[in-house]
User: Which sequence fits this backbone?
């Protein structure tokens, strides 16, 4: 059956705004939320009328399957405002595609691309004034879908809610980041859901990450579940390694999220003349390179932090420090990508999408 998704969005405006209560020069990450949200329900086998409504709690029956079986997926993206007040998204089509890859894996209905994109653009027009412009800040966008359908039977729900909420946000990390290379726990496994942005993937990371924090590290470097000999991701970010002047990152797989920042960095680095290798990286390659001085940089890459430099890592009870360099690939690539995102530079890859 051909379905059209051009239905107009119903907009119910909030009677007041919280915007004057927010200190836009001191924003934490994801702590304050804008006045409205986009909502679309999936019921009776189809997506219902999309709506923009005042930001509000979601009330669910205690038997809603999200509470019991964790059918929940999300995306993370950002909107930026340039000096002229124009609003931009960065590669939003990639997030929409990935949302539906996640939906399929979690046996949830795919969200029609037009519903997602139109809803996001309309909500951005309503909340334009909330987009921060200070250095390092942006409007963090959190699209998510949850199972609202009821019943204790362990099977996919028959109803879902798709929501887009906004949080004007500052930097994700502040201060020095030291990481622990994980030898016991795994974030994901072959055949699992590691490539999806499923809520449960993150819940499963919290305990091992807390153990690492108790030992004085801020994050975990995930290794492969089978041997724990190969590095996979840096917390909730993709990982990059610089050995001498080569930038390395690991191939995506069933177990690794196909990060949009990761693939953008690969393209920007190559265009910048940096040697890039996408291949498996053994933990011992890192420890040996740290010992012989060829390990120059380690950094995580993701929408929230963009690039997060790693100052040192622990492995098998030993700590390894990274050198302090004046000029890093990490800082250079972060500037290139944020300049594209914020319309401060040309966009040779056509990644920027103007909203209004
Ligand atoms: N890896 C994981 C597990 C993530 O949750 C994220 C964040 O979304 C990333 C990598 C980076 O992906 P992206 O660059 O698309 O934000
Ligand atoms: C990222 O954007 O890099 C993330 O990992 C999102 C995080 C808040 C889960």
Assistant:
């Amino acid at each position: 059956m051909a379905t059209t998704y051009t239905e107009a969005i119903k907009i119910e405006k909030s009677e007041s705004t919280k915007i004057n209560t927010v200190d836009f020069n001191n924003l934490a990450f994801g702590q304050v939320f804008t006045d409205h949200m986009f909502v679309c329900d999936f019921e009776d086998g189809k997506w219902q009328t999309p709506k923009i409504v005042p930001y509000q709690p979601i009330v669910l029956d205690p038997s809603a399957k999200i509470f019991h079986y964790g059918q929940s997926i999300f995306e993370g993206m950002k909107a930026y405002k340039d000096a002229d007040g124009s609003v931009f998204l960065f590669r939003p089509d990639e997030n929409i595609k990935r949302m539906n890859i996640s939906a399929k894996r979690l046996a949830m209905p795919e969200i029609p691309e037009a519903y997602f994109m139109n809803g996001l653009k309309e909500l951005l027009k309503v909340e334009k004034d909330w987009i921060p412009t200070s250095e390092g800040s942006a409007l963090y966008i959190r699209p998510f879908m949850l199972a609202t359908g009821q019943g204790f039977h362990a099977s996919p729900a028959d109803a879902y809610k798709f929501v887009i909420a906004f949080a004007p946000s500052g930097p994700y990390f502040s201060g020095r980041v030291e990481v622990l290379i994980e030898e016991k726990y795994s974030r994901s496994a072959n055949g699992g859901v590691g490539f999806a942005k499923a809520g449960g993937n993150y819940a499963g990371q919290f305990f091992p990450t807390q153990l690492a924090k108790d030992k004085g590290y801020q994050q975990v470097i995930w290794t492969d579940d089978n041997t724990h000999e190969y590095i996979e991701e840096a917390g909730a970010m993709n990982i990059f390694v610089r050995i001498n002047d080569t930038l390395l990152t690991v191939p995506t797989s069933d177990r690794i999220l196909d990060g949009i920042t990761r693939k953008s960095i690969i393209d920007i680095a190559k265009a910048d003349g940096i040697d890039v290798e996408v291949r498996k990286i053994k933990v011992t390659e890192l420890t040996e390179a740290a010992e012989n001085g060829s390990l120059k940089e380690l950094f995580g890459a993701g929408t929230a932090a963009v690039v997060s430099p790693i100052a040192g890592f622990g492995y098998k009870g030993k700590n390894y420090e990274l050198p302090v360099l004046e000029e890093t690939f990490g800082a250079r690539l972060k500037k290139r990508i944020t300049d594209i995102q914020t319309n401060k530079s040309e966009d040779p890859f056509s990644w920027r999408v103007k909203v209004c």
The longest strand covers residues 138-147. Residues 76, 197, 233, 236-238, 257, 259-262, 302-303 surround pyridoxal-5'-phosphate (ligand 1) (CB under 6 Å).
